[in-house]
């Protein structure tokens, strides 16, 4: 059997390659058919050779490369698979765990800083995400559902206040969602990776993607927001079998793919989402509450619309509430305090003219929600996940669950492709990424359209539809509200779109039926009136 040596990033069989001051020198084949070689570049070589397989691990400047024997039929021997993940958010952190579980060597790069098991102080507050059955299913695959669920707060509905002087109205979901800050969700996954796979996952905090060569799967990282004492660090250049962009809405990985690949095009539509602040609130706000009918319920999401301003409030387990406020224009604490007292007097005690909350909200940057659409999520060995690939408007609580689901789908397709040894590892990964894109793009197109349609539906329409469906489901109990199904079952988004269309059709038919009944009733009343009026006309003088 003829075999040759190659690094995992080469796409063709061959040996004797020399690039720059890196070289691989061959000194022949010994009696056991083992290739003898040396690697020179301020590093060291460890090797163990057998007749049909070999492992060579080369370390250089703290980074590792693995070489393998490839046979003449193109099949890959026992070689270590490497991955670089850009972004340590929920999607990137979950994928790192899944890949490490399959014996991948994973390097995770994150621009934010980390300190003593949590995000370093001074990092921007993250969004509060709502997790349902889809997220629970994904987290169970790495045994972290209970850990995550213990860090969040269950919300069974939302409390809405619209206009001045109106009493809050509690609107139950009919199911429970877990509210948790996105950084807290990511930190649970990161800490798990550090403890379970310290030799397989390497986390590099404080490093942002500078450039990407998707044709060669080479990523360059530079220090991001250098803390004191770390200035002057050299950039890190990494080559891997798989490059994953999980770096959020404003993805640098996505931008690099568009810059380098002419045919790779995406669109990004953003809308202002307001300023975000984490505020400590009384215990009763995140505990049991009583609705307008006197019924006791658990914590709820708060929605207040008043004076052309909109506020969302999501409770946290630590006694704080994540507030996102649209329409605040003040740039000083006094201005912000005045606006809050005019629009949200319920919170005026927290936002004094010289209060800390007013000062923090005054300097808080405007945040954005966006919709990312793309015809493909991959190019060769590079792939986009989560918000980097398909950010959604936060109106259906599907975004976080779909981002985590991306990781499970990609892991499944990679395993399936790599089990097929008819191709090299590079070709197997490329095939898996192409299949991932083909499978997920239709789902995310449906999700984006669903979120857009829901965002255009006003509160009156929502309440009318719910009222009609409550009546219809009494006679047809098998019909289930699409949003309840979305958060209590793991259902295809395309199926959810069909169910929503069915519900809209049912509502329209019900409205037409009600209109016809009213019309028939009106005709009957007119006939009765005519029966009374016409005989009286005979007694009228000519």
Short structural summary:
Helix content is 36%, strand content 31%.
Could you walk me through the main structural features you see in this protein, from its secondary elements to its overall organization?
Keywords: Membrane, Monooxygenase, Oxidoreductase, Transmembrane, Transmembrane helix. One of its GO terms (biological process) is kynurenine metabolic process. InterPro entries: FAD-bd (IPR002938), FAD/NAD-bd_sf (IPR036188). GO terms for molecular function: FAD binding; kynurenine 3-monooxygenase activity. It comes from Physcomitrium patens. The chain is of the alpha+beta class and 542 residues long. The chain folds into three domains: 76 residues, no CATH class; 365 residues, FAD/NAD(P)-binding domain (3-Layer(bba) Sandwich), CATH 3.50.50.60; 64 residues, no CATH class. It is built from 13 helices and 28 strands. The strands form seven sheets. The protein has an eight-stranded mixed β-sheet with strand order 12-14-13-23-24-25-20-26, sandwiched between helices. A six-stranded mixed β-sheet has the order 15-9-8-19-28-27, with helices on both faces. α1 runs parallel beside α4 and α6 crosses α7. The longest helix has 45 residues. The N and C termini lie far apart (120 Å). The N terminus is likely disordered.
Q: Let me know the CATH homologous superfamily of the largest domain.
A: FAD/NAD(P)-binding domain
**Architecture of the largest domain, CATH level 2?**
3-Layer(bba) Sandwich
N-end to C-end Cα span: 120 Å
Give the strand order, joined by hyphens, for the main sheet.
12-14-13-23-24-25-20-26
Main sheet characteristics? 8 strands, mixed
Averaging pLDDT over every residue, what do you get?
78
CATH topology of the largest domain: FAD/NAD(P)-binding domain
Radius of gyration, rounded? 30 Å
Shape: globular
| Percent of residues in helices | 25-40%
Secondary structure class reads alpha+beta
Number of strands: 28
Low-confidence stretches: 1-77
How much of the sequence lies in strands comes to 25-35%
Q: What is the overall number of helices?
A: 13
What is the CATH first-level class name of the largest domain?
Answer: Alpha Beta
> Please, how many domains?
3
InterPro entries: FAD-bd, FAD/NAD-bd_sf
Keywords: Membrane, Monooxygenase, Oxidoreductase, Transmembrane, Transmembrane helix
Transmembrane segments: 505-523
Organism: Physcomitrium patens
